[in-house]
Amino acid sequence: MPASQPPTESGPAAEPAAPGIFIPVTNPLERLNKEIKRRTDVVGVFPNPPALLRLAGAVLAEAHDERQVADKRYLSEGSMALLDTPPANPKEVAPPALLTA
Questions:
Q1: Distance of CA 68 to the CA centre of its chain
Q2: What is the pLDDT of residues 8-40, one digit of tens each?
Q3: Does residue 10 sit within a domain?
């Protein structure tokens, strides 16, 4: 490789997908961005910038509402409550049952 070219990453992220092949998105933020792009592509041309902002805001509000009522949340109230509970033994990091696999 010539010295003028930067080294490339290896792995699946370094190689672009072939045209027409769908790669599912697992990152919630990427999925949300794709949904905004899909809906703006459906509309096509916006009469003014506030119209685009209203559509993107509606998509974000809808996603927020869906996440609030979903059983599986990124940071659920139950998992966050576990972070606030003090351990029974302050020197104990985790129960011994969790440390053995």
A1: 15
A2: 555 555 566 667 777 666 788 888 999 999 999
A3: no
